[in-house]
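pasting for ref. prot 1 ->
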Amino acid sequence: MLELLGQFEERSQFFNLFNYITFRAQGAFFTALIIALFMGAPFIRWLRKKQGKGQPIRTDGPEGHLLTKKGTPTMGGLIILISLMVAALLWSDWTNAYVWAVLLVTFGFGLIGFIDDFAKVTKQHHGGLSAKLRLGFEFTFALIAALIMLAAEWIATTPAGPHDPVGFFSALMAGEPLTAVALPFLSGWGVQLFAFYVLFAMIVVVGFGNAVNLTDGLDGLAIGPVLIATGTFGVITYLVGRVDYSAYLGIPHVAGVSELGTVLAALMGAGLGFLWYNAPPARVFMGDTGSLALGGLLGSVAVATKHEIVLGIVGGLFVLETLSVMIQVLVFKFTGKRVFLMAPFHHHFEKLGWQEPTIVIRFWIIAVIFALAGLATLKLR
């Protein structure tokens, strides 16, 4: 799209605006927002008609869920994904490898989630794809995306000449800066993982995809913190993509990664449009279709910007939700006792008698605190 608009640049100064990432990010935001808002209501009616009973509600969950959430359609994540994809493709630079890598993960994880949701709705049972099959596909998409992003970084940082696969894999084995993990509060590169960085990147993408998925248990609970983390990484991508700002802050510089700002802006718009319908009481759930895709998107952006550890801080709420499940399972396995009344631990507070909107808003506040802590790592080095 940018090449097409470039042909008109000499005729009108207006078209020069499309060279600025800030302008295109705003365009992506409003495009996705408008699409999500306008398609939301008719799409929800269509989902309700097709799904009938809606998403199956856990019988062992909080007592009020069977009454208040029964019949609510799922797969609302399609509203986000369609809006996001259209806006990102309209406003992004199609020659940027990072854009395609992130969109690949988003689409791939969304497809996995859709298949899982479809199986649950048709069978009216919580069992969708098997865990092994699901994780196998997730790691496959994450592997492809990680290699694309690493290859793009390698090409940008190596002298002009033939860029053959042998040279790329040699660079991975040699432990060049592209395979190092930057540490918060420290300037420059951090821990060198060599070729194991690829596995690390895959774990970050898959892990965060499933972390967001675990958090999606109350109306508006997942999408709010996702939007907060998205805005935070919008700032990070812009700074990492600028040589001057990254040098000043002592953070890794990755050429071309700032283009991901258009994708993140599109997610912001699509997410806000979806929140209009997902706010308590929700008219639609995003389902695995949305939660897996959004988590995978944020994980892949963290890998692209070399801020994987910072993602754990910015997305600290998702990390805590995941840890609550792991702790609950491990303690129960070895002692037969439960740490929480129910995991993930947002359900623990429901069991304690907290109202759902209270939990959601307080968790949003926690997400903001984590986001500010993550941004602080950029300066405190």
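and prot 2 ->
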Amino acid sequence: MNWKLAARAEKMNPSVLREILKVTERPGIISLAGGLPSPKTFPISAFADACAEVLHRDGQAALQYGASEGYTPLREAVAAMLPWPVDPAQVLITTGSQQGLDLIGKVLLDPGSRVLVETPTYLGALQAFSPMEPEPVGVEGDDEGVRVEDLIAKAKDARFAYLLPNFQNPTGRTMTEARRAAVSAAAAKAGLPIVEDNPYGELWFDEAPPPPLTARNPEGCIYLGSFSKVLAPGLRLGFLVAPKSIFPKLLQAKQAADLHTPSFNQRMVSEVIKDGFLARHVPTIRALYKQQRDAMLAALEREMKGLKVEFSRPAGGMFLWVRLPEGIDTVALLPKAVEHGVAFVPGLPFYAGEGDARTMRLSFVTASIDEINTAIAALARVVREQLAQNAAEDVQRRLAATPV
């Protein structure tokens, strides 16, 4: 048969993260690659109780089709837990927050549309927007977040800016209060909508992050959240909050995509989170992740000593961002690291344009402390070997260029 692909399908590429996860399935590989929450944090007994209660109390409705907007008590619970006044009618329950990105792309992007993203940014967002064939434009940033001057300089004709202010994937950085105020004010003045993605905001270690960008200008923002990082990703349960002017179109896109997010999953989560469960459960996740972050930072400081390796010190979330010495390409380094029993994610796929080949993302939440120590030691050996190889090759090149 002569199957002819659509132009948008021709431009689709496999997920780098998904391909790397296949590598990590090999026996003996310690993965610092995937963005998976620690399974130790999954409240299995709470879900077992909720499952029995939902089926006993309302099993037929739980197993039936539901409203595309989502289960009303869950929408009400989401609205109540957000730190600004939210009408539950503006809450759309999605099949993971990744679907929220897909719906936003379908509704707001045309081929060639400009969409502003951080440098670097979440790879999954680039992939979600890609089928709509937009033009992603990277915005410069620093330790405080995106630079306002560059954001506004590139805002003309942009459909929206996609930002992750809290413990950003992949860098782990958090936008400061001052920068949030400046970004929000500048975007509102320029008429630039903001898509704010906040899957990690509750995973703070010592201090909660500043209020969301959306809280400052609800009519100018779409807000994305998720239950994957605070409950369990296998439920595929996320949500978005959108202005009433755009909500109907997002709902129509949702109806066309999958009719509704699984009714049973929604009711289970609604049952689990009632009576303040998240307020008791999430601190246990924070404590575990903080301990593992500290272990990775200590291992990097110890094992990478003298190598001129730079790395972030996130105040929450799941990731560290590492920049290796000049002359190292982490894409080329990955197979050598796997041979030494450790996997990571190269940094290049996280850039909308030209990226920094020396960067990598490390996750500190799924490996144990012993595994983190072993993995970072192995990674340091690989880096030292690569630097030695680079030096030897440089000597050979100079010798070859020297006239006899």
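The longest helix spans residues 369-401.
The chain has two domains: 7-42+279-401, 64-277.
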